[in-house]
Specification:
The chain has 151 residues and is of the alpha+beta class. It has one domain: D-tyrosyl-trna(Tyr) Deacylase, Chain: A. Helix content is 26%, strand content 36%. It is built from four helices and seven strands; from the N terminus they run E-E-E-H-E-E-H-E-H-E-H. Strands 1, 2, 3, 6 and 7 form a five-stranded mixed β-sheet that branches. The chain has a two-stranded antiparallel ribbon with strand order 4-5. The longest helix is centred in the last third of the chain and has 19 residues.
Length: 151
């Protein structure tokens, strides 16, 4: 799995002009599921995201996590994170999981985050054309790849 995690002041996610999800201060997680992923990667990633100390404390140092602060997380599926553009100009998505594999794992990450945080975690709409409005805080953007980090 690949996750791009952005610290945000707010996020509003729309599908066909309709507001579907929104959060205030917290993290926007763009999540890509690969053909090699399973439940172990989903569980590990949820724990890692919830414990990342990328939220500033009172001294302005990144010493706090969403667990510490009670901030929110919004998770959006994004298969294009698995794009391979090494050859040619048209990216290949052969490493991205098909929906029948990706949806349960995406839902597993969200479910694990909900258990860890003790509250609902808003999401995007899997496979939909989404418009995301956000204000990045910092900016702080962290990329996690379970294929590298879990070795």
């Amino acid at each position: 799995m690949i996750a791009v995690i952005q610290r945000v002041h707010y996020v509003k996610l729309r599908v066909e002009g309709h507001l579907v999800s929104q959060i205030g201060k917290g993290l926007l997680v763009l999540l890509g599921v690969s053909i090699n992923d399973g439940e172990q990667q989903a569980e590990w990633l949820a724990r890692k995201i919830s414990q990342l100390r990328i939220i500033s404390d009172e001294e302005g140092k990144m010493n706090r996590s969403v667990l510490d602060t009670g901030q929110e997380i919004l998770v959006v599926s994004q298969f294009t994170l698995l794009a391979d553009a090494a050859q040619g100009n048209r990216p290949s998505y052969i490493k991205a999981a098909r929906p029948e594999q990706a949806i349960p794992l995406y839902e597993k990450v969200v479910a694990e985050l909900q258990i860890i945080l003790g509250k609902k975690v808003p999401t995007g709409v899997f496979g939909a054309d989404m418009q995301i409005e956000m204000v990045n805080d910092g900016p702080v953007t962290i990329c996690l790849d379970t294929s590298v980090l879990m070795k």
